[in-house]
Amino acid sequence: MSRQGQSGKAEIISKEDLDKILYHLRPSDKIICLLCWFTTERIGAILQLPQHCIYDQSGQVRERIIIPKEIRKAGGGEDAQTREVFCHPILRDALKSYPRSVSDFMFPSPTDFTKFLPYSTFWRRFKAAVRLAALTNRRITSHSFRRSSITYLSRTGISLQELKEITGHKSISALLKYIEGDPLVQEKAILQLR
Question: What's the pTM?
Answer without folding.
Answer: 0.88
